[in-house]
Amino acid sequence: MTSWASGYMTDIAYTSAFFRELSPSFLRFAALAGAGVAGPDPERKLTYCELGCGQGFSANVVAAANPHIEVHAMDFIPGHIAGARALALEAGLSNVHFYEESFEDFLHRADLPAFDIIVLHGVFSWVSPEHRAQTIEILRGKLATGGLVYVSYNAMPGAGALVPLRRILFDHVERGPGPLLARIERALEFAEGVRQAGAAVFAANPALGAKLDMIKSQSRAYVAHEYLNREWHCLYHSDVVDELAEVKLDYVGSANLAARLDSMKLSPEQMALLSSIEDSRLRETVRDSILNTEFRKDIFMRGVTPLPALMRTDLSLDTRFILAVPRQKVLKGVTTNLGAINFDQRVYEPMADALAQGPCTLRELLRRPQLRGIDANDVRQAAYALLTFGQIEPCLSAARDAQRAKSTKAFNTAVMKRAAYSGDLMGLASPVTGGGVPMDRFSQLLLSAWQRKEPDIAAAVWAVLKPEGVLPSKEGRRLETDAEVLAEFAQQTEQFVLKTIPVLQLLGVA
Ligand SMILES: C[S@@+](CC[C@H](N)C(=O)[O-])C[C@H]1O[C@@H](n2cnc3c(N)ncnc32)[C@H](O)[C@@H]1O
């Protein structure tokens, strides 16, 4: 570790994924649905800033999908910023500005605009209290009145259970010799040995074993940044609320809309307990204890103006949504801590059918013959559930679809060109949602070949991957011949064209 990094992991670059909560349209709807407040309007010319942007992939996606928004993003690791700038350049993005700076440097810049939205994803828990205080000072000085802040962090009490395991991993990696990746492998084996030795901490906390298994399966770059920084803090929501209140920020609600679905997760007694608690911070602490929350995604605003109830309903009914998964795969129910919950198919089926045709507001949905007689509240509730479980996404209005499509096309082409060489960039940008679409390398290669109208997509993709000398596997068995690989790829191509391409077309990506 280097001295300028103050214990932050700099030996390996972070992963490049897009997180849906970072898109201005998603944040706007979450604030509206969660708390009935109007956050910054993503249709306007906003200024947006990401603190600790990692590889800058999310910032680049937001810039590509919202060419009318000026995006600023900073991180102190030079490799992260150099890579982010290179991608922006390849994609021809002129509305994104990257800064290779520490929080302290950024705090003292005098040439920044006031930001309408500031996001910190995966930052608060992984930096020292001193550095967290610097980010809060940035919020004090650089957030516009009426501005919105999104902040995610490891939450108490759920993440607290991980402390002993993460400590074993950290100490083992820090003290071991050799290259980082080898040290990570040895630390994971060591932790496994501790479990096998019958350490009581695993018995006292049965979820810990499952956590260890999960960590072992994750990308080592992710493991390094997630668990191996010197600083690793689990925060109580109420402490975060107190810290941010100091810079005039009020808690607005959660970005995962889960609070809107309490009846799916909490027993009537638990709901009654929560509604008997007057203090909102204590209520949230108890809620986190009931649900054993591990990770929080909180939205704050400076200057909250609650909307009248009817206006709030109108605005959410006027939001456009689009299906984000293949129609055939839309969930018919979920399993929560209350057990299996079946969605009411009288509402969910026609909603999914309609949203599979193209973006549609909830108000338009209510006019469909298939939904006639269904209550607007049931449709809104279904939208919250479908959104929470990743089945639909809120969209921007159609007015600037074409302008957005131009810049997402250039961006997605640049990302898919990279897919010929590596699987680092894990998504594309959607002009319809103004956010990202998660997509692995293989799917990017399929999409790229499909767009080029390759007569044999499977062969075109294998021609890219074969020189790397790694034979793909199927159900744990390595495929051995070209013919086997091509047969497998052909099957996957068929499913991709049948199920995934229609969704990508809806999202304006294919
Ligand atoms: C876990 S990563 C999250 C990256 C990104 N927000 C994302 O979600 O993909 C945290 C990032 O914060 C950056 N960081 C940590 N301390 C910092 C500091 N003092 N100044 C600037 N960046 C910092 C790290 O370099 C790292 O890229």
Q: If you had to describe this structure to a student in words, what would you say it looks like?
A:
The chain has 510 residues and is of the alpha/beta class. It folds into 4 domains: 207 residues, Rossmann fold (3-Layer(aba) Sandwich), CATH 3.40.50.150; 67 residues; 85 residues, Arc Repressor Mutant, subunit A; 106 residues, no CATH class. Helices cover 48% and strands 15% of the residues. The protein has 22 helices and 16 strands. The strands form 5 sheets. A 7-stranded mixed sheet has the order 3-2-1-4-5-7-6. A 3-stranded antiparallel sheet has the order 11-8-12. The radius of gyration is 23 Å and the shape is globular. It starts with 23 loop residues before the first helix and ends with a helix. The mean pLDDT is 93. The site of S-adenosylmethionine has 20 residues, from loops.
What features would you highlight for this structure?
510 residues, alpha/beta, Rossmann fold, Arc Repressor Mutant, subunit A, seven-stranded mixed β-sheet, three-stranded antiparallel β-sheet, 48% helix, 15% strand, binds S-adenosylmethionine
